[in-house]
Amino acid sequence: MLKKITSPKIFKNIFSHIQDKTKLKLIKYHKSFQKLINVKIINYRILSGKYIEYDENGKGKLYDAINNKILFEGEFLKGKKWNGMIKQYYDNGNLQNEIEYLNGEIRKEGKIKYYDRNGKLVYEGGYLNGKKHGKGKEYNKFELVEFEGEYIDGEKNGKGKEYYNDGSIKFEGEYLNGQRWNGKGKEYNSENYLIFEGEYLNGRWNGDGKEYYLNGNIEFEGEYLNGYRHGKGKEYDYNGNIEFEGEYLNGCRFYRKRKEYDSNNNLIFEGEYLGAKRWNGKGKEYDREANIEFEGEYLNGEKWNGKIKKYNSKNELIFEGEYLYGYKYKGKEYHNGILEYEGEYLYNKKWNGTGYDKNHNIIYELINGNGKVKEYNIENDLIYEGEYLNGKKWNGKEKNIIIIL
């Protein structure tokens, strides 16, 4: 019975129920008793209350006996921190880090886990000279990965990924000195939809890139500067139809050279803008069938010089010719596809030219806005017969046509 009672195993089980402070008082000066219960305590310091408890393999723990808190856990040699992964603790007893030691010193390069004062993991990965280095991961307050990638001298450098608090991806691409940098990257919203892919510089969109709608269609593609659309670009509607093609300045459409499209993706204008108007410079306007309606120059938002075509609501050609200084200069007028007038204009008035009937017979000639004329409506009914003076009706008769349905 005595042997069983004095068995180290039994003593150790009994001793395990004694409070740490009492345990320390019992064994700190009793080496034989320490050996009996297989506990070793060394380097007990009366003033600081610090001591080391270690086992036969050299692994041990450094305690603060006064506050009854662990300070360090790892391998010891002759009472000193030595080799391998060790654990260090905050003064509140929570784990501070797990780091590699070599010959009693923190290794210049190795792996580390770092925790905040509440014991939550903040970082794990490589380090060099006490700084993040190599591959690593940062964690948010929920202990989910916030960033994973490469580090140099404590900063994000190289390829990496950022994540939202729910663990969904926020960004993937390249970094330089902690910022999204050169090279292409992808950015996602909190619902994991791709919203941008392209090039970054100084943490902002710079260079070529694309923005996306939530349905995956492109919203914009073109050039960026400091996070803004800047340079050449194209805009699309939600269904993928192009709306605008031209130049941008600091995020806004720069109304110089550009193209406009209708809802059916038909080109309706290309040319130069100033402000919000088709302005000074050359341009083209197109009809719904992509036929050119106007090609020439604009001034102060008005058609100025150049060739032009006009159509009615039935998409029938009613005028083709030239503009000069914003007015009709030369051209042809049509009714129901039949040539009605051909000649020159003065401030949009028929001036020097010839009028025709539906059989292409000459029915009048104007010289300097003067002459005998016949005019017809869209149904080719005669509505005026008489004379013109200075491009205006002068002496003649108008006929009212009543259409009976």
Features:
405 residues; mainly beta; 31-stranded antiparallel beta sheet; 3-stranded antiparallel beta sheet; 34 strands; 60% strand; rod-shaped; disordered N terminus
Overall residue-averaged pLDDT value: 78
The rounded Rg comes to 44 Å
Total beta strand runs: 34
The fraction of residues assigned to DSSP E strands is over 45%
**How can the largest sheet be summarized?**
31 strands, antiparallel
Report the span from N to C terminus.
128 Å
**Quaternary status:** single chain
The proportion of residues forming helix, as a percent range, comes to under 10%
Unreliable sequence segments: 1-8, 401-405
- Given the C-alpha coordinates, what overall shape results? rod-shaped
Computed structural class: mainly beta
Question: Number of DSSP helices?
Answer: 4
Structure description:
The chain is mainly beta and 405 residues long. The strands form two sheets. It has a 31-stranded antiparallel sheet that branches. It has four helices and 34 strands. The protein is rod-shaped, with a radius of gyration of 44 Å. Helix content is 6%, strand content 60%. β7 (95-102) and β8 (105-106) form a beta hairpin. The model is unreliable at 1-8 and 401-405 (pLDDT under 50). The longest helix is centred in the N-terminal third of the chain and has 8 residues, at 8-15. It starts with a helix and ends in a 7-residue tail after the last strand.
